[in-house]
């Protein structure tokens, strides 16, 4: 019982740590495995034929083994398609031969399984043409060897083929759609970072471009006057010195303005980044009465908290509340110990908050939740 309990706990832990994309992939694969396992109902058909004397024991066993092999190959082929593997040409050829042999033994699931294996690696019109050819070929086989077309069996095979191919195609389409959406979310987050870097580069170019050009021009004129008029050259160099100091003051002011974060903008940006990463984020912030230093400090805490949510959890929900200078940021998706680097990232921030007369605490609350709380004098 303890071993079974341990496996259950390990399974739950693996599920909690898995990303949303992993969960969608597992859903697509395991639901498709159920379709493949349904093909093993053909074993019951073989048993009935053996009981009725229509098939000897050894051939029935051989056909059953071949059907199991075909089901295993079909399941592995679909998993390969979901993982983005290359087309398994040899496996498809071998499975096609197996499916043909089994269909001649009245195992109508066999061609359907082979068509399902072909579906992820061929064009839809090719699969449709192969499905039509399978139904027509089966009808011809019935006409030649069963004395006429058994329309009930033909209709049953047609319905099974359409249903199975539709389910497999839907699973594959949903998986690819989920993968594209996940890649789009990552691209959106990277784009937001790139846009911020471009904005900083433009500001820096506008700030220093003209100042450095002026300094360079004044230094060149001072060099030209150095031999003919040393006093004028010295005056030019004083102007270069003053221009350099002015540029330095402007750079420091710009850097200080970047450090002085706008809390409302940070909240909006963090919410956009978390939503892009698939985390539902709810923000309830009353920031009107907060001073500039408090706003900057809380904005820094929010950014660090969002970084920890993305790096150290598999969160699906995040809540950010600010009231009377108290920030509380909670998220789910925490399994086991909190990420090893999370305390290091919050250590320096905790000292900054303490220096401002506030407190910062971050700890898991149980059941996969984590709360970051910062109280700063408003």
TrEMBL record:
GO molecular function: phosphorelay sensor kinase activity; protein dimerization activity
Sorted UniProt keywords: Kinase, Membrane, Transferase, Transmembrane, Transmembrane helix, Two-component regulatory system
Transmembrane region(s): 27-48, 55-78, 90-115, 127-144, 150-175
Residue intervals of the Signal transduction histidine kinase subgroup 3 dimerisation and phosphoacceptor domain: 196-260
Keyword Transmembrane: yes
GO cellular component: membrane
Signal peptide annotation: none
Stated name of the protein: Sensor histidine kinase
Organism: Nonomuraea montanisoli
């Amino acid at each position: 019982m303890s071993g079974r309990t341990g496996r259950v706990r390990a399974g739950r832990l693996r599920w909690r740590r898995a990303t949303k994309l992993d969960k969608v992939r597992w859903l697509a694969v395991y639901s498709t495995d159920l379709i493949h396992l349904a093909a093993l109902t053909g074993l019951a058909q073989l048993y009935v034929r053996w009981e009725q004397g229509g098939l000897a024991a050894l051939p029935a066993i051989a056909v059953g083994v071949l059907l199991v092999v075909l089901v295993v190959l079909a399941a592995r082929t679909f998993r390969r398609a979901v993982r983005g593997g290359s087309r398994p040409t040899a496996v498809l050829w071998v499975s096609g031969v197996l499916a043909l042999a089994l269909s001649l033994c009245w195992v109508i699931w066999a061609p359907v399984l082979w068509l399902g294996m072909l579906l992820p690696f061929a064009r839809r019109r090719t699969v449709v043409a192969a499905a039509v050819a399978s139904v027509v070929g089966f009808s011809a086989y019935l006409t030649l060897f069963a004395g006429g077309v058994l329309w009930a069996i033909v209709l049953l095979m047609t319905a099974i083929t359409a249903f199975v191919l539709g389910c497999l195609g839907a699973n594959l389409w949903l998986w690819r759609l989920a993968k594209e959406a996940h890649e789009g979310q990552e691209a959106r987050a990277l784009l937001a970072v790139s846009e911020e870097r471009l904005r900083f580069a433009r500001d820096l170019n506008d700030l220093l471009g003209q100042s450095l050009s002026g300094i360079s021009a004044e230094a060149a004129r001072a060099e030209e006057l150095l031999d003919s008029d040393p006093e004028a050259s010295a005056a030019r160099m004083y102007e270069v010195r003053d221009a350099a100091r002015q540029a330095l003051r402007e750079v420091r002011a710009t850097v200080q303005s970047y450090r002085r974060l706008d809390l409302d903008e940070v909240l909006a940006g963090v919410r956009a980044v978390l939503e892009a990463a698939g985390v539902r984020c709810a923000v309830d912030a009353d920031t009107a009465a907060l001073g500039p230093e408090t706003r900057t400090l809380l904005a820094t805490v929010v950014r660090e908290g969002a970084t920890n949510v993305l790096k150290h959890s598999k969160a699906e929900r995040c809540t950010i509340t600010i009231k009377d200078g108290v920030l509380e940021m909670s998220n789910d998706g925490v399994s086991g110990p909190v990420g090893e680097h999370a305390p290091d990232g919050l250590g320096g921030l905790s000292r900054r908050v303490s220096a401002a007369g506030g407190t910062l605490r971050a700890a898991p609350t149980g059941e996969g939740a984590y709360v970051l709380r910062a109280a700063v004098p408003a």
